[in-house]
Amino acid sequence: MSTDITVTDIARTIDHAILKPDLTRDEVDAQLALCAQYEVFSACVRPSDVSHAYEVLEGSGVAVCAVIGFPHGTTTTQTKVAEATEALDNGASELDMVINIGRLRSGMLDDVEDDIRAVVVAAGEHVVKVILETALLDDAQIEAGSKAAERAGAAFVKTSTGFAGGGATVPHLRLMRAAVGPEVQVKASGGVRDLDTLLQMRELGVTRFGTSATATILDDAAAREAGEQGTGATDDTSY
């Protein structure tokens, strides 16, 4: 790990995913405690957990991110807007919304863009990340979806929910990064389970990572940082 990248730097790029449908309240609380312990950027939670997560994490420096239209993206625009409004009222500061995947695959780009824009407008100054579900799309659809998200005013394009049988890949991230302007950020999610993968994707221009492997990634980063400090290593390729 490069000596100019610290564990804190990496932690502040992580949205820790707490999204499995079968998680109990005790399991959610354990994951929220992990978020606070590792000082990640945000806890990304199910809509029904937003108010609880906000109460638990208040004062910790960890934001609450809510998923919208998750995981299929097939709810109506009005429903997504209602979900977004409720999540923000309950303490979320960022929203990760799933596009209408079937309409993107159908070439109905105006509908896709309008769906995203409605949530962006409802979010106001809050960050909206648009989940494309890249595992279900071809390259042209990924590019078109990314551009629709940019036109609609989204802050991020994001690869995946993690629930569609595939996650972030280097080719898809390169395509997304190239498809949008520098003011739109890219989030990788699904399959980001180790530090080397995260660092490789970071080099592509990815600025946020959705993962549930936070402890594994950051413990590895801490061990490497400690080793570099102990040996005085400065080789940027020594990860």
What is the gist of this entry?
By secondary structure, this protein is an alpha/beta fold. It has helices at 7-11, 25-38, 50-57, 77-89, 101-105, 109-123, 139-151, 170-179, 195-203, 214-231; strands at residues 14-18, 42-45, 63-68, 94-98, 127-131, 156-158, 185-189, 208-211.
What this model shows, in words?
With 239 residues, the protein is α/β, with parallel strands linked by helices. The chain has one domain: TIM Barrel, CATH 3.20.20.70. It has ten helices and eight strands. Strands 1-2-3-4-5-6-7-8 form an eight-stranded parallel barrel, surrounded by seven helices. The longest helix has 18 residues. The radius of gyration is 17 Å and the shape is globular. The termini are close together.
What brief labels describe this structure?
239 residues, alpha/beta, TIM Barrel, eight-stranded parallel barrel, 15% strand, disordered C terminus
Question: Looking at the structure, what is the overall shape?
Answer: globular
Structural class: alpha/beta
Kindly report how far apart the N and C termini lie: 5 Å
Number of domains: 1
The count of DSSP E runs of length 2 or more, i.e. the number of strands, is: 8
Helical proportion, percent range: 40-55%
Using the coordinates above, name the CATH class.
Alpha Beta
What name is given to the CATH topology? TIM Barrel
